[in-house]
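[Q] Does anyone have a clean structure-token version of this?
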Amino acid sequence: MMSSVIRLLLLLPVLSVLVGCSKTALLYDNADWMATRWVSTLLDPDGHQEDQWGEMFGEVLQRHRLELLPEFVSLLAELEQRADGGLSTAFLDCWLDAADGSYRRHAQLLIPTAVDVLLQLRPAQIDHLEAALEERNDEYREEMLFADPAEQREARVDRYVDRVERWTGALDVEQREWFARQVERLPDVAASWLAYRQRQQRDLVALLRSGPTATSLRDYLEAWWLRFDHRPPQLESDIASLRGRMVQLLGELDQRLAPRQRQHLAARIRDLREGLASVAGPVNPVVARDERVPCGDRLSAASAVAQTR
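[A] Here you go.
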């Protein structure tokens, strides 16, 4: 499924931190090959298709460098600027809104290429896609879902702690115990998310087998990747609740960070920003919500307005 390439585009910044700034350009220079190989495991292309798709992904990734990567560098610059002095919940909420907008622009960039690729699939390749998607769903179950509720909670806490410690460095015992208690109170959407994802995948496979037009396929992908039209109301509510509570949790965690952890966080953000800036086009202002001003400016303006009331 082509959403794998969206994930690759979003993962490239994270991967650049893991390999180091000096290798960021090499990573991006080979990203079209990575995208092609990633999609090949799902779609089983022939030699001609693989060559053609590689060229298409190369064009998408070049546009990503010039149009979307500068925006992400701006987002990181603002996050880096705030990290030393503390990340308020208001700032985090605004910053995540901007990141959500970035995700949608990644999807918008990719959808035309996704349509072109999916329209080329033969029946055997659609069968291959169906089997590959189910295999990935099985992997998701093994990683995210456990029959024992206690094991489920423990694994979930471990995942959240691991994600945080990648940025802050190791949490001390008191911080970890506090964080674990907070994570246990968060909505767990793993099972309902998998059910939703499986339904969307089945609908996509059925659409591909029906001989779709470019318009019908584009409409389906936009509804799925951009508008989230078919999310069940309960899942939509749980995701919104999870996001709001995560913002609150991260804001509270920020207040508990030791100086060494805050320095570690700022250094990680700086390394990521510098690595990406080395391969990005000119940096433009951040898009926060629907206003083309950085989150810091928006929050300062909102505070000034509030003081006049």
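[Q] Thanks! Anything notable?
[A] The two ends are 51 Å apart (CA to CA).
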